[in-house]
Amino acid sequence: MSLYAKLTAREASGKPIRVALIGAGKFGSMYLAQIPRTPGVHLAAIADLRPDLARRNLERVGWEPARSRANSMDEAVADGSTWVTEDWRKIVQDERIDVIVECTGNPSAAVDHCLQAFAHGKHVVNVTVEADAFCGPLLASEAERAGVVYSLAYGDQPALICELVDWARSCGFPVVAAGRGHKWLPHFRTSTPDTVWEYYGLTPEQAERGGLNPKMFNSFLDGSKPSIESAAVANATGLGVPANGLLYPPASIADIPYVTRPIAEGGMLEHKGMVEVVSCLEPDGRTIPYDIRMGVWVTVEGETSYIRNCFEEYNAHTDPSGRYFTLYKRWHLIGLEVGMSVASVALRREATGTPSQWLADVVATAKRRLKAGELLDGEGGYTVWGKLLPVERSLALGAVPLGLAHDVRLKREVAADTVITWEDVDIDTTTRAYELRQRLEEGRANAIEV
Q1: Which helix (H) or strand (E) holds 246?
Q2: For 3-156+335-348, which CATH class?
Q3: What is the rounded average pLDDT for all residues in the chain?
Q4: 305 pLDDT above the threshold of 50
Q5: If you compute the radius of gyration of the chain from its CA atoms, what whole number of angstroms results?
Q6: pLDDT by residue (tens digit) across 350-359?
Q7: Helices and strands (H and E) in the chain: how many
Q8: Would you give the distance in Å from CA 79 to the centre of its chain?
Q9: Helix, strand, coil shares of the chain as percentages rounded to 5?
Q10: 3-156+335-348 and 360-441: identical CATH topology
């Protein structure tokens, strides 16, 4: 039975999936816009540090004020309305909630929210992929131990890439490479919230109209988010990671099967079976026609002459050898699509992407010369950007993961474009996020299979 059929059956039975949202920012608001149009789902509660802002966002996406009139969970459950509160613990602990959608964008807070949700029998759709990138395998392990599902969020590119990889493998195709698109030039890695809109291609007026967070959007532009999302994909699919970070090969959609081949065959990959991100800009800044900037892709191999002949007969666009074919989805709709994850975890108990091993890490790297005493401000900020590395190299460097480089003070000077190490920082070691990260680094989670 399709998910939509299952949702309509839940609607007809009067037993909707009860969902709680933690964090009603841009991503959360996009999901909120779809909930009134989705059968079988009741958003029972929203937890946000600024309830007034959450209510404004509800109005922004078209909710009638009466829909969020509840003053408690009891009222929300009784009349199908939504309770807006500052207290995330109350909604996580309520036995009537089925699924938590974590949308805060705060990695350490997201770890706390996920762990508490698991402890109280809740499935989690984790939008805060920054948390998944530095301790996702242990989050998945804790969810399995609790008998619930931990999932990446459909609509975000990692889940969509995982879906393409699953399609390829389920059809019998070896995956050569998989990833997303991006607008990338090397100097973007030093971008800050002050420069983001000009580089990104939006006016300040457009950004304000959309309620867009410059720091969050800068985390995409400076390469942090592509690295984070690529790490999530690698850890969920087992695909390899470039030895010294993403290469961002420039390519049109037609050229993706050309560049996502091994170096030995004229492409840019170190070997088959890797994550990568394709740029929509030539090195001189020219825009590439028919680009994959907002989309996702997977390159597969036709191993036999019969399969390659089928590619040719059905006009599948391949590389010149006819061996490599790329399937793609040119757009992703972000929070507008997260209902797929909610329905999947609640009705099928299936994640739309979940980490099963620890292969990839994203390390905090100095955007400029940083002085002793400076405060690191995490992804998209003024001090660090995220570089994708294989776990073995990250551990050898003693690198601080980007997801933990928030409000952390430097003990000594760090040169520009240098990886931040544990010895460089004074960090709070009492958080659950730090605890989970240390468990990974000590090797206790390296063999987790979820």
Answers
A1: none
A2: alpha beta
A3: 95
A4: yes
A5: 22
A6: 999 999 999 9
A7: 17, 15
A8: 34
A9: 40, 20, 35
A10: no
Report the distance separating Cα 382 and Cα 296, nearest Å: 28
234-244 core/surface letters (b: 16 or more CB in 10 A; e: else) = bbbbebbbbee
Specify whether the CB–CB gap between 362 and 227 falls below 8 A: yes
Closest by alpha carbon to 296, among 335, 327, 274? Answer: 327
Residue type, 264: A
Tell me the per-residue pLDDT of 112-150, one tens digit each, with 9 for 90 and over: 999 999 999 999 999 999 999 999 999 999 999 999 999
Whether 439 contacts 445, CB under 8 Å: yes
* pTM to 2 decimal places: 0.95
Residue type, 444: R
The verdict on domain 360-441 having CATH code 3.40.50.300 is: no
SS3 labels along 26-55: HHHHHHHHHHHHCCCEEEEEEECCCHHHHH
* Structure token pair of residue 176: 């050569």
* Size (the chain), residues: 450
Q: What distance in Å separates the CA atoms of residue 210 and residue 89, rounded to the nearest whole number?
A: 29
Contact 335, 31 (CB under 8 A): yes
Domain ranges of the chain: 3-156+335-348, 158-184+223-331, 360-441
List CB contacts of 439: < 8 A, sequence separation 6 or more.
138, 445
Residue 55 structure tokens: 């209510």
Find, among 217, 215, 131, 104, the residue nearest to 402 by Cα.
131
- Count Cβ atoms within 10 A of the Cβ of residue 315 and give its class: 0-12 exposed, 13-18 middle, 19 or more buried: exposed
Query: Angle, nearest 10°, between helix axes 214-221 and 224-237?
Result: 70
> CA 397, CA 392: separation in Å to the nearest integer?
9
Q: Which amino acid is at 365?
A: T
